Amino acid sequence: MDKGKGVMVGGRRWAVDFTDNSTSPSSRDIPDPPGFSRSSQDQDDSTLSRQKKDAESNWKSQKAWEVAQAPFKNLLMMGFMMWMAGSTVHLFSIGITFSALWQPISALQGVGKVFESYKDSRVDLLGPKLLFIALNLGGLALGVWKLNTLGLLPTHASDWVFSLPPAQEVEHSGGGILLR
Amino acid sequence: MDIRVFLLLLLVLVSSVEHGFSLYEDQVGLMDWHQRYIGKVKHAVFHTQKTGRKRVVVSTEENVVASLDLRHGEIFWRHVLGTNDAVDAVDIALGKYVITLSSEGSILRAWNLPDGQMVWESFLQGSNPSKSLLSVPINLKVDKDNVILVFSKGFLHAVSSIDGDVLWDKDFSAESIEVQQILQPPESYVIYAVGFVGSSQFDVYQINAKSGELLKHKSAAFPDGFYGEVLLVSSDMLVSLDATRSNLVTISFRKEEISFSKTHISYLVGESLGIPVILPSKLSGILAVKFNTLLVFIRVKSEGKLEVVDKIANAAAVSDALSFSEGQQAFALVEHVDGKILLTVKLSHDWNSDFLKESIAMDHQWGLVQKVFINTYIRTDRSHGFRVLIVMEDHSLLLLQQGEIVWSREEGLASIIDVTTSELPVEKKGVSVAKVEQNLFEWLKGHVLKLKGTLMLASPEDIAVIQDMRLKSSEKSKMTRDHNGFRKLLIVLTRAGKLYALHTGDGRVIWSLLLPSLRKSGSCKHPTGLSVYQWQVPHHHAMDENPSVLVAGRCGPHWDAPGVLSFVDTYTGKELNALGLTHSVAQVIPLPFTDSTEQHLHLLIDSDQCAHLYPRTSEAIGHALRSNCIGVVDEYCFNSSDLWSIVFPSESEKIIATATRKLNEVVHTQAKVIADQDVMFKYISKNLLFVATIAPKASGEFGKPTPEESWLVVYLIDTVTGRILHRMTHHGSQGPVHAVLSENWVVYHYFNLRAHRYEMSVIEIYDLSRAENKDVWKLLVGKHNLTSPISLYSRPEAMTKSQSYFFTQSVKALAVTSTAKGITSKQLLIGTIGDQVLALDKRYLDPRRSVNPTQAEKEEGIIPLSDSLPIIPQSYVTHALKVEGLRGIVTLPTKLESTTLVFAHGVDLFLTRIAPSRTYDSLTEDFSYALLLLTIVALIAAIFVTWVLSEKKELQEKWR
């Protein structure tokens, strides 16, 4: 999960734009090479950039879907770990259960950040976001379920009455065998 | 399951180490103390003839035979006989055996004088109850065997002092004589047995000391009749009172004819002084007659003539005569003069000269002198000196010598009636600084030693010093409250009517008070103390006041005798107030109300079933509802009426034991979580009474009833409505029953005749009317009535579970641990027949134990079923000690939830601290602070070193 995010965010750190969009020859010190026609190149240039942008948004949406699906693998992994941990309360099972609870929660908190780098006016991020949230919620549910099987959720009457003080009595009696 | 279960599991894991409460050798005495007593002395025999250890052999009212060191009053050896094995007489035979006659003259024992081991024991036969007399003649020999003469149960026995064989016996039971004295004149082999037949005939039997043959029988009638007992004044003269108690009768019995001589007392003393009582002191030629406070000494001359020698006004006690050099005889006389005691030693033949006269200042709290025993010693200038042993009103024992108290023993503590506690004052700041500075060097030395101990560098001597320091730590004997609540005052009431405050830290007596209201006076002839209650426990707004206790007593042996109340400040030990009541005290009921000065309201029930409310303040009356007493002008007296009664059929059931919950017991929770997260609601009520009845036929001794005709029926009764919640019959079982009731369970101990074993049973009672409260959502939003006040008239449905287990020992007392919040698991404290206190986990007495508990039940801590309860040697809280004559066990909660103070009292006192689930809320005594400190230091060092290294590395990186 972390790994995927890292790749996405740090994917494009710097870029050099080799395309020269300037049209006026005066702005350049260097004369055009012989046989070079600037007009034809201008026309060509716009189609090229549109193509490029299309490719980028495609790539972005694809990546976004990939990111959105990433928790699924995690889910499977977690499920396996939980099965391994068993249903008795000990250090290992408690650790796994709490990490299973913590990961979805932290992921859900950072939903915006995860998809920030794929933000684009032409990319629809709602789908991936929803999937991402759903999968994380699934993970969370798995964690809660595990918590319950460990008996750490107050779902029984005993959890609510275990420390109830005894009810007060209205009557009071005293006495016993006569003092000797 | 929940977090609590998890914690519980941890607890169980911790406490499942079976000897969780056992001690290490070096922990003995660290949190426990033990005091040995003997009780009020009845007889004392000195043994000071030879050089070496000077000792006195005593027998006491607590049925103790003991040998005490005369120099310091320490116990050399001590034997506590059974409760119905009272000592009748003590003497020393052959200079090396202590002879005791006990059990109304049926058991004669010889103990080795130096070490107290029993040499022989013989059971003397006889059927008629009679006076028990023991006589150890100095040189009466039968076949080179020194003879001990015993008269008991209508028989005269001659017993060999070597091996306890009965050489001969003479049966007097057919003669209808009440033998009063046995006399064996040293010069002859004739034993005289003298006594009365009826009230007006005097008989003398002469018996051959070698064979037990009857030599002569003389009889003489005395038409006026006799009253009381006879006193042997000289070897041929007896003195008694006549039936009207106005004449002294001297009887001369060794001549051919028995002759009586009657002297009118008022003729002797000149006026009528009241009812005469002949003191049983043997003064050789003199008798002491007591009239109220006046003591008159009368010399018996030849021919039965009497002559008054002296009258002494404030005499307290007279000892027997003691013969010392050249046949001289001396006796001690003790008088009370101006708050001091005046000791006079007089010679029997020469009244006018006082051999010794000493005045000794004495603590008022010891009261009056009741008994005196005299002994002589040779001073360095070869003259005779005397020392006396005196027994005081409060049962304490003192040795006086050369006008000083050599030692004293507070023997009143051997007969504790009731125990209560009081908190100590709160510590005030800035008090102990000077003390610390003064002992700074000592303090440093102590810490260095301790450090050496923890680092295992200490030599054996150092270890001994460290152990001594631990034992005598001033921390535990301070006179202020401590954070854990271990330091308290135990307020104990003794049979002598004396109140003691003992410090729980080291057991020393902080103060003692011989209650003036429980002393003999004109209006109160036979006062007895009954019980002690906490009267005022200041906290919150009454913090400045000292706490006080209420002592209830009565003037007389019967329960309709008028009562006395006494209020005592527990910090100063002064009596604040005393009330002589017009009504009797049959029962004292502490009420759960206090007034504005934090005085607890108490209801005293008298023998006419009227209730009297104390304290008598207008504020207290605000709690009262019922109508006032009829015919008594007293607005604090209330009528009572019968609410309910349960009649047990008298032909088949007889009450032998009851148990109620302790008033101060705190229960943490009403629910019990059982396996599979199920919940059971405990039936918790302060108004629960356990009653055990047995078949009247089975109330006799062991072995008499057959299993078919004996049964034990137990009841659990709601005392508000009189409803029987549970009834159970144990067929073929028999008392005595000891029971303890706590929370929602009762444990009781009885004898199973069929199995020929002792059994312990447990009954747990659960409330079914609450069982429906199992809806989580309702509980979640608080829609339940589990904590709302309930009335027992709503008749909550109850369910019980019970189980019986064999227990190998018979029991003297049964108690249960109590803690401040009631969270800690409980332990039963069993006072065993061996006078020890055994701690048994309540988990062993769980009715839900089964042969194969499920996994969930195991997790809950249920032990697999076994037919008998284990006795784990390490779980004796008294470890190697014995609390001789154990009568009661009191448990006191401390502020630390895990810990309980256990006070066991009998002839001895014992106090210790126990933690039934181990001290989970504090570090244990043996926690290695040194290791913790070392770890911390090492970690800090490691952090520092790695920090420096990393700094260096970073710098190098930057230079590269």
What does this structure look like?
The complex is a heterodimer of chains A (180) and B (960). Helix content of chain A is 60%, strand content 0%. Chain A has 180 residues and is an all-alpha fold. Chain A has a domain at 63-153. Chain B has 960 residues and is mainly β. Helix content of chain B is 10%, strand content 43%. In chain B, the strands form 16 sheets. In chain B, strands 10, 11, 12, 13 and 14 form a five-stranded antiparallel sheet that branches. In chain B, strands 27, 28, 29, 30 and 31 form a five-stranded antiparallel sheet that branches. In chain B, strands 1-63-62-61 form a four-stranded antiparallel sheet, with no helix packed on it.
Q: Summarize this, please?
A:
The complex is a heterodimer of chains A (180) and B (960). With 180 residues, chain A is mostly helical.
